[in-house]
Amino acid sequence: MSGPALSVGQLLKEQEERLRLELVSGEKALGRPITVSELNRPGLALSGFLDHFRAERVQIIGIGEQSYCMKAEPKKLAASLSAMLSSPDLPCLVMTHNLKSPSTLVQACRKNGVPLLRSKLDTATLVSELGEILESRLAPATTVHGVLVDVYGLGVLIQGEPGIGKSECALELLKRGHILIADDAVQIQHRRGGVLRASCPEALKHYMEVRGLGVIDVKLLFGIGSILDRTHIELAIKLEPWNAGAHHDRTGLETKKMTILDVEIPLIRIPVSPGRNLAVLIEVAALNQRLRNKGYFSAETFNRKLIERMSAQG
Predict the structure, then answer these.
(1) Taking 90 as the threshold, does the pLDDT of residue 199 lie above it?
(2) What CA–CA distance (Å, rounded) separates 149 from 231?
(3) Which of 125, 135, 137, 178 is found 20 to 30 A from 251 (Cα to Cα)?
(4) Which residue in the list 97, 120, 184, 290 is annotated as catalytic?
(5) What is the mean pLDDT of residues 6-25?
(6) Tens-place pLDDT, residues 272-298
(7) Contact indicator for 149, 31 with CB cutoff of 8 Å
(8) Catalytic residue status for 166
(9) Known catalytic residue: 250?
(10) Taking the model in full, what pTM does it have?
(11) Which of these, 200, 197, 196, 169, lies nearest to 183 by C-alpha position?
């Protein structure tokens, strides 16, 4: 599912101080929705070239665009702006560097009902800050049940049926120096580049529920170094009840995946039985995945060497 919708008015109200924003014109049009996190510099569009113009994006007016508006022939500029701003999908224009607003631009925005904002930030800073804000608000998001821990710098999502030992496993990992991000509910966003950025709901941060012990405060028990606000999910672990008749991968040659928000991540299924040290198994799984991320596959290397040895002997 998608992140919550964001209007130009909400952006102005929530980020006015951070982005040092002010409204120049278009107060009645602040309800226009912002639907994508990408930003656009409309240099060519100002000259009338609208092929491939990304109207659905917030339009950034920097020094170059403002200079063109100040020097361009007013009638030609007005015609280009009218064509550019006529799209109902265009959210707003934001001028940077606290620049003076060209009268032709202000009139065109008023005529087409498009909000015109101004920021005191320079263009590079505004683009960086606004892009991060919009991506955080608009990225596809979901919440899954499980425990999220950072093991050797790798975000590991641990899942399994209730009572199988997910929290106890995470507790053992904490004792071994690893880091908790979320217990029970894991909020996930699909960020640019196919990255799954995960965090904990605000109400549950730093807390774990362990059967028999109840709710514990991880921050107070293990120290500030035992918690982390967010991480990227790079590996999923599925804890399953031991079943002697079930098939379990013993070579590591089978590649399993889990799909979250259209992003595939490696999946390892670990059968749970008395005497198995799950924390150690997850540590090794994380270390092995780090090797895989660098292009080294232990099982494939072993299999290749074994085949070569058999061929040499045969």
Answers:
(1) yes
(2) 9
(3) 178
(4) 184
(5) 96
(6) 887 788 999 999 999 999 999 888 888
(7) no
(8) yes
(9) yes
(10) 0.80
(11) 200
In this prediction, residue 30 carries a pLDDT of: 96
Catalytic residue of the set 52, 250, 262, 294: 250
Catalytic residue among 166, 178, 190, 238: 166
Whether the per-residue pLDDT at 138 is higher than 80: the answer is yes
CB 158, CB 170: distance < 8 Å: yes
The first and second tokens of residue 110, run together, are: 């008023």
Contacts of 296 (CB under 8 A, 6+ apart): none
Q: Which domains does the chain have, with CATH numbers?
A: 6-138 (3.40.1390.20), 141-303 (3.40.50.300)
Catalytic residue flag (residue 145): yes
- pLDDT of 89 > 80? The answer is yes
The per-residue b/e assignment along 13-49, b for 16 or more CB within 10 angstroms, e otherwise, is: eebeeebbbebbbbeebbebebeebebbbbeebbeee
Select which of 13, 76, 100, 145 is catalytic: 145
Q: In DSSP terms, which residues pair with 151 in a beta bridge?
A: 154
